[in-house]
Each structure stands twice: as structure tokens, then as C-alpha cells.
TrEMBL record:
It holds the Pfam family Peptidase_M24. Signal peptide: none annotated. PANTHER family: AMINOPEPTIDASE (PTHR46112), AMINOPEPTIDASE YPDF (PTHR46112:SF3). Gene3D superfamilies: Creatinase/methionine aminopeptidase superfamily, Creatinase/prolidase N-terminal domain. Residues 18-120 form the Creatinase N-terminal domain. Residues 148-278 form the Peptidase M24 domain. CDD domains: APP_MetAP. This is Creatinase N-terminal domain-containing protein.
Length: 281
């Protein structure tokens, strides 16, 4: 069977286990608990441990020891996570009834009295959230392929919504078109911003309103899949651009181009940022 982007490769699983166990060595840990949606998705190569999308901590925790790895959750969540999120990744499930609320207790039992680390506050555990973040900074080759695919899909969804936008539509109506396109591709829109006309320059984060489009509208999406998020913006203008708006658009494009041109393997992030700042001048 041909491997899809939803399937974790042996190389990616091995690479992430190695990074985590190196972290455990550096922090003197015997077990590590990963409960945030971002870290769970990273370690499981794109798996989801959330039910509601507006949460940072999921309903399941990945626990890694020196020689094994576990998923700790309640009996309600276990079947779906096993069947759809961590297939063939070698996890052993440790569950309890949903009403017992024993997840932290089970995690400490897995640690067996040894040093326990966690990416969230937990009794008798060392918070190593910053160290876990550092593990995620360098993308694997599989993650790069997923990012490319997600970026293309997000761009296409924005383009479709832009073509649907018309003068007289409300920002809420345009937001619904954008979200419909994104959700239809199995992507979660974690942020959707829409601004018409003067709201574009007035607010940095314009939550959609009943404001109607006259001449111009901005669409923004932060789209999540496999634990990765692509942020993209598109602008639509009805009728000829004013000279002032054209100058502003070209200036922004130059700054964006400076960021893109400077982003190369081995480049220092600070240098890339400073190069873009210089472009503003």
C-alpha cells in the first residue's frame, strides 16, 4: 500500500523518539508526558488528541519512557485515537473509566517512581515545556512535505473564497465561504479574520462582523492539519486600485519578498528579520 501524508514513516517515528530520549537524558528524566495538542501531534506524526479545537491541552497524553511509549486517556477516547490517530506507531494504551479522572495517577505509575517530566503543570513532575518546544524547531522531511501540501491547500481555499466574495456580502458570509472550503479538505480553521474596506487598516486582527463589503476585503486564515499551521492572507479589490493603495501594496510585497529571499538553510533568523526591517526604510 502506498504511504500517504496521513501515515507516519518508520524514519519519522524513529527520529522523534530519538529527539525525545535525548531530551530525557539532558533533563535527567525517566519518563516524559506530552499533553498539549501541539506536542502530541508532533510526537505522533500528525495525530490529534483534542475534541474541542479551542483547547491547548488534549484529552490524551503520550508518555515516553526509556524503552516504551504509551497513550493515557479515558475509555471513551481510546478507541478512536487507537484507530485513527496513532495507527501502527507502537503505543500501548493505558486507560481508565471517564468518571475516574485518573490520568495523572496512571502517568506517575508509568514513571514508576522515577523522574517525570511534563509539557504541562503536573504534580511531582518537572515542567520541560521549553525543552520540548526546541525538539520541534527542526522539521523532518515528512513534515516539510506535509507543510507544502497544507500550504497549497490553504492557498487554494483562500482563492476559492476570494472568487466568491462580492460587494454587499457581509464579513460573516465571506468567513463562512472560507471555512467551508477549508473544512471540506479536512483542515481545521483555527483563526479566521475578515475585514472589509476601512476595517483593514483600522484593526490588526479583524474578527468577522456584519460589516458589508464595498470596494475591498481582506481574508486571513490560520489553517491546521497534522499539528502544523499555515497562516495566509489574501486581498480582493473591486474596481481599479487607487495610486495610494497600489504604493502600499507594492511596499508590503517588497517586505514579504525580503523575508522569502532571506529564508535559506543555515540562515540566522535574526539576520532574516533585520533584512526585512531594512526593506521598510
Amino acid at each position: 500500500m502506498e504511504r500517504t501524508l496521513d501515515m507516519a514513516s518508520v524514519d519519522e517515528i524513529r527520529e522523534k523518539q530519538q529527539r525525545v530520549r535525548e531530551l530525557m537524558d539532558n533533563e535527567g528524566l525517566d519518563a516524559l508526558a506530552l499533553s498539549t495538542t501541539a506536542n502530541f501531534a508532533w510526537f505522533t506524526c500528525g495525530g490529534g488528541n483534542y475534541v474541542g479545537i479551542a483547547t491547548e491541552i488534549g484529552v490524551a497524553t503520550a508518555v515516553i519512557t526509556r524503552d516504551a511509549k504509551y497513550i493515557v486517556c479515558d475509555n471513551i477516547e481510546a478507541p478512536r485515537i487507537a484507530d485513527e490517530e496513532v495507527v501502527d506507531q507502537g503505543f500501548e494504551f493505558k486507560t481508565s473509566f471517564w468518571y475516574e479522572e485518573k490520568k495523572d495517577e496512571i502517568i506517575r505509575e508509568i514513571a514508576g517512581g522515577g523522574a517525570l517530566g511534563s509539557d504541562t503543570p503536573m504534580a511531582q513532575a518537572k515542567n520541560v515545556a521549553a525543552a520540548v518546544d526546541a525538539c520541534r524547531h527542526s522539521l523532518t522531511s515528512d513534515e516539510i512535505e506535509r507543510y507544502k501540501h497544507l500550504g497549497q491547500d490553504t492557498g487554494e481555499c483562500l482563492a476559492l473564497a476570494c472568487r466568491e466574495a462580492k460587494p454587499g456580502m457581509t464579513e460573516h458570509e465571506i468567513a463562512s465561504e472560507l471555512s467551508r472550503n477549508i473544512l471540506a479538505r479536512g483542515i481545521t480553521p483555527v483563526v479566521t479574520l475578515i475585514a472589509a474596506d476601512d476595517r483593514i487598516s483600522k484593526y490588526r486582527h479583524p474578527i468577522p462582523t456584519d460589516n458589508k463589503v464595498d470596494r475591498c476585503v481582506m481574508l486571513v486564515s490560520c489553517a491546521r492539519k497534522w499539528g502544523l499551521i499555515v497562516s495566509a492572507t489574501r486581498l480582493v479589490h473591486f474596481g481599479p486600485l487607487s495610486p495610494e493603495l497600489r504604493v502600499k501594496h507594492e511596499a508590503v510585497a517588497r517586505v514579504d519578498a525580503a523575508f522569502i529571499a532571506g529564508t535559506k538553510p543555515g540562515a540566522n533568523v535574526g539576520d532574516i528579520f533585520n533584512r526585512a526591517v531594512d526593506t521598510y526604510a
